[in-house]
Design goal:
alpha/beta; 6-stranded mixed beta sheet; two-stranded antiparallel sheet; 42% helix
Length: 380
């Protein structure tokens, strides 16, 4: 009978779960180091549960970005939109090496970090479509999402780095042993404000991890054409640095743990360069193939895709089955579809909401006896 069959199947699944390797040791690529006597370990342990969690998170980020691409092309998402697909191992690896009570700030390619910091797919998608249920109530859009201990996407190139140093200064001031991770791209790496920040962070020994996500192109300009030195991990000069394989979640996790330990032990700031790659163009207005070839993109996808790399590791070490990972894919797809459905049906914020949340908690100030806010009424 059918129930007998499903019971048998259940037993089979339970048995096969028991047969899985619960943890395994992996050999990872050695980091290049600058001004450091030690380096992150090259032999690391990953448990089956961690592997499954990393896989689900990366797959969710990938699917979410592909859905955003689709909605953008349908003109449902408008304006600035920078996608993170290809770089998932950076976000998931960093989060694996710190805790949610640590702090993080990034540039405008921020959807992935909003998710790993605790935002939901539903809130992120609704923010992209500018709806009331968005994580910033539909007022921030793609580049301005925030949640606890996450100080957002920031639209001005490089501007988040000094802000991140400010957060690190607060960590030091409160003496709570927390660190702040400040992320920027290879395009922002030549910004003057970044070097000013390095100087202050080093002088004050701030618990700051500066992370350059080097995806090889700043907008449409390759790193070689933009930077006299492409050794971004050495550019802190007097600040120690690490160059890390940003396509391997375990490499990133191990390097982040190492960097966080460095900061927590009072040694001051540290730099990390994550060598990664974006599959999409710089933003949705950039087709991404005028300054690099389709073959180059395909080659990276084929040889060093972060999700495929993790999947292969788990399968070859008997840490998961193909069916189980497929099941996760199905669940993720459904979550994304439901979120997209919500993001396209949730109402937009009404006009009278426009000037709320400008002041911390008081209603807008009376200016010379006039209050322009009272005149805003939604007619739609």
């Amino acid at each position: 009978s059918l129930s007998k069959y499903s019971l048998l199947n259940k037993k089979k699944t339970l048995r096969s779960y028991a047969d899985f390797t619960t943890q395994a040791t992996f050999e990872i690529k050695k980091c290049d180091v600058h001004k450091l006597d030690e380096a992150p370990a090259t032999q690391v342990v990953m448990t089956r549960d961690e592997g499954l969690q990393y896989y689900r998170t990366m797959q969710t980020m990938r699917r979410m970005e592909l859905k955003a691409d689709q909605l953008y092309k349908q003109k449902i998402i408008r304006g600035f939109c920078h996608l993170y697909d290809g770089q998932e191992a950076c976000a998931v690896g960093i989060e694996g090496g710190i805790t949610l009570s640590d702090h993080l700030i990034t540039a405008y390619r921020a959807h992935g970090y909003t998710y790993t910091r605790g935002g939901t797919v539903k809130e992120i998608m609704a923010e992209l479509t500018g709806r009331r249920g968005g994580i910033a109530k539909g007022k921030g859009g793609s580049m301005h999402m925030y949640c606890k201990n996450f100080y957002g996407g920031n639209g001005i190139v490089g501007a988040q780095v000094p802000l991140g140093a400010g957060v690190a200064l607060a960590c030091k001031y409160f003496g709570n042993n927390e660190v702040c991770v400040s992320l920027y791209g290879d395009g922002a790496a030549n910004q003057g404000q970044i070097f000013e920040t390095y100087n202050m962070a080093a002088l004050w020994k701030l618990p700051a991890i500066f992370v350059c996500e080097n995806n090889r192109y700043g907008m449409g300009t390759s790193v070689e054409r933009a930077s006299a030195s492409t050794d971004y991990y050495k550019r802190g000069d007097y600040i120690p640095g690490l160059r890390v394989d940003g396509m391997d979640v375990l490499c990133v996790r191990e390097a982040t743990r190492f960097a966080a330990d460095h900061c927590r032990s009072g040694k001051g700031p540290i730099l990390m360069e994550l060598q990664t790659y974006r599959y999409h163009g710089h933003s949705m207005s950039d087709p991404g193939v005028s300054y690099r070839t389709r073959e180059e993109i395909q080659e990276v996808r084929g040889k060093s895709d972060p999700i495929s790399l993790l999947k292969d590791r788990m399968l070859s070490n008997n840490m998961a089955s193909v069916e189980e990972l497929k099941e996760i894919d199905v669940e993720v797809r459904k979550e994304i579809e439901d979120a997209a459905q919500f993001a396209t049906t949730d109402p937009e914020p009404p006009l009278e909401e426009l000037c709320n949340h400008i002041f911390y908690n008081d209603p807008p100030l009376e200016v010379r006896g006039t209050n322009p806010w009272t005149k805003l009424k939604s007619v739609s």
